[in-house]
Amino acid sequence: MRVSTLIAAAAGCAQAFVLPQTFLDAFQLSSGVDEQSFFWPHKPYFLKHEVDPESFPDDIELAELNSTAWDLYQIAGTSNRTYGHPTRVIGSEGHWNTLNYILRQFDEMRDYYEISTQSFKALNGKVYHYDLNYTNGAKVPTAQAFSLSPPAAPFVGKLVEIPNLGCTDADFEALTITEDSIALIERGECPFGKKSSLAGKHGFKAVVIYDNDPTSEKGVSGTLEKPTNHTVSTVGVSFAVGQELILGITLDPHFSLFYYMDSYVNEIETKNIIADTKHGDPENIVALGAHTDSVAAGPGINDDGSGTISLLAVAKHLSNYKINNKVRFAFWAAEEEGLVGSNYYAEHLTPEENLKMRLFMDYDMMASPNYQYQIYDANNIDNPRGSEELRDLYIDYYTEHGLNYTLIPFDGRSDYVGFIEHGIPGGGIAAGAEGKNTDNGKVLDRCYHELCDDVNNLNWEAFLTNTQLIAYSVARYADSLKGFPEREINATVTASSADIQYKYPYKGGANLLL
Ligand SMILES: *[C@@H]1O[C@H](CO)[C@@H](O)[C@H](O)[C@H]1NC(C)=O
Ligand SMILES: *[C@@H]1O[C@H](CO)[C@@H](O)[C@H](O)[C@H]1NC(C)=O
Ligand SMILES: *[C@@H]1O[C@H](CO)[C@@H](O)[C@H](O)[C@H]1NC(C)=O
Ligand SMILES: *[C@@H]1O[C@H](CO)[C@@H](O)[C@H](O)[C@H]1NC(C)=O
Ligand SMILES: *[C@@H]1O[C@H](CO)[C@@H](O)[C@H](O)[C@H]1NC(C)=O
Ligand SMILES: *[C@@H]1O[C@H](CO)[C@@H](O)[C@H](O)[C@H]1NC(C)=O
């Protein structure tokens, strides 16, 4: 199927598919790249069949999802030299090579897609090393560095328990700090970054945040987000360790810890990739997206390699068909840093561009190992009109295929936020993150945000089913938006982004982003 006689006839075109040398340099994977995949038969558009939503999902094959997953894992490995392990975090070789890989796939389909990239700035940081020790040299158990934590030169500091939750100046004002000190603060009420910044403002050199969940054995972790001038180096520990430290202070008013962190926080430039079909009604755009970046801890093959892979497969097969509405495939960067790429995109749409987008479908984490078929419980009361129709499309699909699904909160943990905040109907599906599977009580993705989120972390049944559902959603709306609500022209479309009251609790609260 891949190598057709059309190629032989069009041998003169082969030159056009040769990769630029700069790309080959950046993409250090020549051995893993199948030369034949650079060629794809291109039927003239007018000879293509109209896409049929019922049969189109059958075009998706497990083998192609598998082969792209292995490509992404190899690409994540290009970060080994600088990160010590595979990752596709923004700014890493693994992320840049992911973007190049996507661009290369679309380069093969440039008769069908118009490609653009959008640069924007995002924070990127790296913790090389940290120590939180008792003064006898023993390591404080469960300690984990927060991402985007600034560094701290080695010091021994007196540990001071902060009253309340360390979310207001008042919580710190009563304390007198006369020597190097470390603030001990309970998790809760306000973002981690706020606790860290307030502690720094009141003279603390570092912060230890302990979890408020007694059942969690791991140290609390997350991101400090955008640093202020006061943000100080911060680590998290478990609830139990927090209690031990409090006991230490109670028994010894001079109770101290050794603290050290080697890290940096940088603002870097990264990119979204947007691929629009050249055909289809440009006034009625069907948009869908996945994020190209992982967290620093691992290769992110489920999160969100899976969504990226699904979109690439659907885009490739769609190019064999005629469509009525324009389709926009979006590949967001810096989702893990706070939905930065998708928010930037949505905020920078002109009102005219905004109104052409009929809906946005979010595909983040499609193949969790202990999956459930999760559907965002979007509705037309709290969300732009049309969100509910999209939710019902997913419900009907799973139901017709005899599959159980669960509705999950549409509460701001992924890249749909920017769209619904700007009046564009949205929704999506997922296979599960750190939550528990309601059927068996076990965690949905045991490798969520960890090093083991590799190819072995994918559940193939969920991956195939969800990619076929993505194919269905695209074909269905690309074919016709009949019955799908028209866009409402209302305040949120035209308001400048500064005027928008973000109502989603997790926006920027990146600890809980998928
Ligand atoms: C995926 O591909 C690898 C390598 O070609 C193969 O070993 C594995 O069995 C495949 N997995 C599935 C689910 O097809
Ligand atoms: C990167 O390191 C991992 C082990 O952490 C290894 O499996 C992988 O093959 C390495 N990849 C490359 C491209 O060096
Ligand atoms: C802190 O603990 C780590 C881990 O046990 C150890 O390697 C390091 O030497 C300790 N540092 C100090 C200054 O005690
Ligand atoms: C932070 O520090 C920089 C440089 O010292 C200064 O220009 C800036 O105004 C400060 N920002 C705030 C919010 O205080
Ligand atoms: C704009 O749309 C939202 C979401 O559909 C709706 O809640 C709101 O009432 C609309 N505003 C106006 C001014 O029509
Ligand atoms: C769907 O859920 C029901 C009730 O939880 C269960 O009995 C059934 O086996 C499930 N079906 C599938 C296909 O998982």
UniProtKB/TrEMBL annotation:
The signal sequence is 1-16
What domain of life is recorded for the organism?
Eukaryota
Broad EC category: hydrolase
**Which Gene3D superfamilies does this chain map to?**
3.50.30.30, Zn peptidases (3.40.630.10)
For this protein, the Enzyme Commission number is 3.4.-.-
Sorted alphabetically, the Gene Ontology BP terms of this entry are: proteolysis
Q: Which family does the entry's similarity section mention?
A: Belongs to the peptidase M28 family.
Looking at the record, the residues that make up the Peptidase M28 domain are: 272-472
Q: Name one GO molecular function term.
A: metalloexopeptidase activity
Residue ranges of the PA domain?
157-245
Please give the cofactor(s) recorded in the UniProt entry for this protein. Answer: Zn(2+)
User: Mind listing the UniProt keywords for this protein, alphabetically?
Assistant: Hydrolase, Metal-binding, Protease, Signal, Zinc
Q: What is this protein called?
A: Peptide hydrolase
- Residue spans making up a coiled coil are none
Keyword Repeat attached: no
Q: Which Pfam families match?
A: PA (PF02225), Peptidase_M28 (PF04389)
